[in-house]
Amino acid sequence: MWRHEVYCGVFDLELLRQAMIAVLPAGTDPDPGVPQTELVLSGQSAMFALVLDDEGRPLEDTSVISACAWATGRLFDPGPSTPGWLDGFEELDDAFGGAIDELTATAIPYGPTAPAAGTAYERWPGSEGAAGAPGADGGGWQRLLAEILGGAAVGAVGALFGEVAGAALQGAAEPLVRRAADWVAARRPAEEQVDSGRPDGTGGVPERASADGPDASAEAEYGAGAGPRALGFADLVALTAQIADLCGVRDHLRPQVVRVRSRLVHRPRDPRTKVAATPPFLNSLLPPDLARVSAAVGKDIGPALEAYLTELDAVDVGARTDVRRERGVVLEGVAPDLVPAGRWPAPARFPLALSQQFAVDRMLADRAGTEGGMFSVNGPPGTGKTTMLRDLVAALVVERAAVLATFDRPSQAFTGPAWRGKDRQGRHARFVSRLDPRLTGFEIVVTSSNNGAVENITAELPGIGALGEYWQAGTDHFSDLASALLGGPAWGLVAAVLGNKANRKEFGDRFWWGRLPEKETDARKAAELPPLRGMREVLSDWIPPKPQPGGRGPVTPADEVAAAAAGPARPVPSWTDAVVAFRTAQAEVERLRAGRARLAGALAAVESPWPGSGSRTWKPPCPGPTSRSPPPLRSWTGPPPPLPAPGPPPRRPRPDTGRPPSTYRGPARSWPPPARTCRPPVNWPRTTAST
Length: 691
Description:
By secondary structure, this protein is mainly alpha-helical. The chain has 23 helices and seven strands.
């Protein structure tokens, strides 16, 4: 079916730049030293946007007003020098969504009409003083549109139908801030207006046409339960003019273009399924979050955000350590007792590099016993940041598993009363059990201004290629579901794309319900794969069946038929066996860690300088050319061994005769012999300070 993204009031961004330059003090160069030809701002934006279904009806929660256009109007009225000059956008955005709902719930008989004075829309905020404006008696479209939107909308639609006099209504007599505030107040629900203390309890909204007025028959077509009507071109023109008037940018941005982008989407199988869509990307996603951060500063915002917001002058630079100079700090940071118990199932011959292991160990050490913190890892592309992150994920998974292994049964992971409520439609009951606090704090949210950086992680971690060959055959963590989410072969359900509403909905359909698009369902059938089983179905199989009275099996023929139809019960994983297996692996890890800790201690003792002397290194003699193993480690304590006294070289047998040394005198040798550079054969293992 078709889906339409509608962008109304399209304007050039260069007009926006010119508007910002216009409010600068005279003689100010906005971009010193930049040629004028490079200052032209390309691209376009729009006053507002929304998404329509295949019948032209707006989809819920898809209408967006341009914050950029709003701020442009505020540059001129009331101006940046006025306190709170940018206040009110959120209220306008909410009111705009309410106006669309009201507009689509009312049948408006658009059409050219004869001008008439004294109509209701003249009393609408922003339309005062517009003499000679067209109107209609009773319940004409002008009156209805004025009640729902305002005088600017009526004027624009009147001009669309050739009523040139109506264009005068696009002007504004009131200040912009007051005009917008009045319009927002008029869009509030009736119960809010009564609470606001207005004497008449109406909030200044003109009365609607009576039920027996000229539009009674038209409104009857959209009675209760009929749903919203489709938006027409006249509605879009009216909305564009009204928003441009409220933002005060009609002359600055000249938003007069309506653009529609249509594309085909899959129709839901169940006609009762609520259709959802992602709102058009018209505004930045950052301002709401920045506003929350600004309001939370000075309160308990957490150590990570507090560290990130710390002023540079407040940072104790003297407490920093340059790990490139003080290599001992790095070696101490990768000591065996700091290495996490979990590691990504990668080939053992490819351990983390020294800097990667140091980063993982340091992050986990700084996090232990605290509420978290911030640790920055920088590096060019391809330097192993994602590889490092994989080991961090593995470490956190094992830490959480260690907590789970302390429970005698899975139900002990949930504590306290569960939250109970209803879904968004208010039709179905929902409850969420409270998790034991010891199981929280292991979550990872990957965010970036670059979508590609996030996709590298969410697509790489679950993929089967992320595992070493040794692990690929036996590792399975809901691999069927993970493959359905990834769109390719996957080994485990460890990452998912949840950035926007559409991604979250798709995740819920696939992960929880096991719903796939028709094309993927047909592909599974062609590959002779069973239908995808969502997590809801998987967990349902693990719930023990209710015992029959007396502890017996099926007692009626109907029960026997139902049991036969259900087929053999799927095996339920044993919690006890899983805990025993984990504790066995955990004990083996600690055994290996203890052995490496003893070895690290011995190495530290060997390499320590002796008292009263500087650090010295004694290189053992080079092995012979036929050696197959590296030379043994030679260590001692105390002073270094004395060098041999100078003297004549020892006599050696002649190689070709084998006669005793006394009968052979070779050429004179110098003493001590010259130093030789010793390089081990290439087949020796080359290792660094690994643990």
